[in-house]
Design goal:
Layout lengths: L7 H11 L4 E4 L6 H9 L4 E4 L3 H15 L2 E6 L2 H15 L4 E7 L2 H5 L15 H6 L5 E4 L5 H15 L3 E6 H4 L20 H15 L3 E6 L2 H4 L3 H9 L5 E3 L14 E4 L7 H8 L3 E5 L20 E4 L4 E3 L2 E3 L4 H12 L6 E2 L21 H10 L5 E5 L3 H6 L9 E3 L10 H11 L4 E7 H7 L3 H6 L5 E6 L4 H6 L17 H4 L7 E6 L2 H13 L4 E7 L7 H9 L1
Parallel strand pairs: 1-2, 1-3, 3-4, 4-6, 5-6, 7-8, 7-10, 7-14, 8-9, 10-11, 15-16, 15-17, 17-18, 18-20, 19-20
Antiparallel strand pairs: 11-12, 12-13
Length: 552
């Protein structure tokens, strides 16, 4: 392609493709329309339009969690601010999303004209400033800085696994530029000090030798691309292990050495003892949040911990830095397999086989619901569990090996999982999305069912109809009107957004038997969406959530 017909927009979208995306999410607007044509003309990218900008942001987040990079396009002001909640969630939970906003022409901005979608004050960088707090890199593209700033923002997104922001004025997008002459450097920076690493290794040998040892992992391991490295360490050793709910499905939950999901004070006794009473607790990528630690109720003595984080490691109160998590894990692996005496922490009991609480013909109970779902998951299932009853219901239940579990326990924006499962389903077409979402959350983002149908995806959607915001009722206001939602005929909703007999199977389940039958039909129906409305009691709450709600 020659300079005569290669533009700054072409450069941007070529770099997006190079970073790993093959789709771009978003909503058209008059400030971005011209460079949306560049996406349509690209042989590397495909446009996926969403029903609104917030859903586009959630979809990009889900896509990024699976693919490692995502991009979305919105329009200036009204569009980008609609998406900023999703971007904030991506920032909090380490989803590498590039947010591109189409801005007014630079020549019009320079004149400080009163333009639509602006605040009417002649200032055009105020929305970019709003993005600073929820992105690791930002740029307002000009003809002079286009190549350097596009490259900078994208590389920072990939290296830091957090969102970035680009404002692209409509006229600048169409200006000529030469294509890039070399590939982006997308490798994470490694600032490990060899001296710190050597001293850390020696300290590990002295600390671990002869102690009863347990490992606790969390989601940062995945964000840093080290899931395989951690699993190799687990396979080559005999120590038991657990995760926080944020790190669920990071490790094999079917092993005899799987202690469970650690919820601090409300944990199952087996995992609580293993984590809190081991002589040596190895923590890898662990971040305690109020939701994953049941209100910071963990009882873990720092003096008996090895803590491996993104850029430093510690043993007791001694810190070794800088050490990347990748290098620290490698050294830990070497030490654990070096011949020193590693004593696995004995698990006090085993995870009991669950016995269904209600008969198949009786009203469905939450306790039974989540076990029935877990029992029917297959390898390569991509589970998105909405924050609330779904996330807390599935959290403690061991999942089959090969299942990927996604939630949003830190940001916790209701409605997130529906469009996120859409994005993830597009990113990983070889996996089937299983969406677990409540009726209250669904009201926020249900429109993107239309996009799932248009994209010919085959998710299984279990919409939990329990007449309102059950997690909020559990915390406060059990019978108050603010925890009620409008009465919705959910059986009609898929049809309203384009469902037909050819692309969607619509079912309902009020008993355990009906749920098993519906899921069996879903497993046989692999070529289209399956929408199952699942009925549970208004105040039927998963045990972990009930305990956490009491604490909160």
């Amino acid at each position: 392609m020659t300079i005569e017909n290669y533009t700054i927009a072409d450069y941007l979208f070529d770099r997006i493709a190079e970073a790993g995306a093959t789709e771009v999410f978003g909503v058209p607007g008059d400030y971005n329309l011209l460079f949306l044509d560049n996406i349509l003309a690209s042989d590397k990218l495909r446009w996926v339009g969403n029903t609104n900008e917030l859903n586009a942001g959630y979809a990009a987040d889900g896509y990024a969690r699976e693919r490692g990079f995502a991009a979305m396009v919105t329009t200036f002001g009204v569009g980008e601010l609609s998406a900023i909640n999703a971007t904030a969630g991506s920032y909090a939970e380490y989803a590498p999303v590039l947010h591109i906003t189409g801005a007014p022409k630079m020549k019009l901005q320079d004149k400080k004209l009163v333009l639509h979608h602006s605040l009417g004050n002649g200032i055009f960088d105020n929305f970019a400033k709003m993005a600073e707090s929820v992105s690791v890199a930002q740029a307002i593209i000009t003809p002079e800085n286009a190549a350097s700033q596009i490259d900078y923002v994208i590389t920072q997104i990939v290296k830091k696994q957090r969102p970035g922001y680009i404002s692209l004025p409509a006229d600048v997008a169409q200006m000529p530029i030469y294509p890039p002459s070399k590939k982006l450097d997308l490798q994470r920076d490694n600032h490990t000090s060899q001296q710190a690493l050597d001293e850390f290794k020696q300290a590990l040998i002295q600390f671990i030798d002869g102690k009863e040892t347990m490992l606790l992992a969390d989601i940062m391991v995945k964000y840093l691309g080290l899931k395989n490295a951690l699993n190799e360490l687990i396979e080559d050793t005999s120590i038991p292990y657990a995760t926080l709910s944020w790190g669920k499905s990071l490790l094999n939950e079917q092993s005899e050495r799987w202690a469970g999901v650690y919820y601090a004070s409300v944990s199952d006794p087996v995992v609580k003892d293993a984590v809190e009473n081991s002589e040596c607790l190895i923590m890898v990528g662990v971040t305690f949040t109020d939701t994953t630690s049941s209100g910071f109720s963990q009882e873990i003595e720092a003096s008996r911990t090895i803590n491996i984080s993104e850029e430093e490691s510690s043993i007791g109160d001694k810190v070794f830095a800088p050490i990347s998590m990748k290098d620290a894990l490698q050294v830990l692996h070497e030490v654990l397999t070096s011949g020193i005496k590693v004593v696995p922490k004995p698990l006090q009991g085993s995870i009991e086989t669950y016995q269904q609480q209600a008969d198949d013909d009786d009203a469905l109970l939450q306790q039974d619901l989540w076990h029935i779902v877990a029992d029917n998951l297959t390898e390569n299932s991509l589970v998105f569990a909405e924050q609330g009853t779904s996330y807390n219901g599935m959290g403690p239940i061991p999942l089959p090996k090969g299942v990927t579990f996604h939630g949003q326990p830190l940001w916790g924006s209701i409605g997130y999982t529906l469009p996120a499962s859409l994005g993830a389903g597009i990113a990983s077409a070889d996996k089937r999305s299983i969406l677990l979402i409540g009726d209250g959350s669904s009201l926020l983002t249900i429109q993107d069912i239309a996009i799932m149908l248009r994209e010919k995806l085959n998710p299984v959607i279990l919409l939990i109809n329990n007449s309102g915001y059950t997690i909020e009722r559990a915390i406060h206001g059990e019978e108050e009107i603010y925890n009620d939602i409008p009465n919705i005929d959910w059986q009609l909703i898929p049809k309203a957004f384009g469902a037909t007999d050819d692309n969607c199977l619509i079912l309902k389940a009020k008993t355990a038997g009906e749920l098993k039958s519906a899921i069996a039909q879903a497993k046989e129906t692999t070529d289209k969406m399956v929408f199952i409305e699942v009925f549970t009691g208004v105040m039927d709450i998963p045990p972990v959530l009930a305990k956490q709600a009491a604490l909160f």
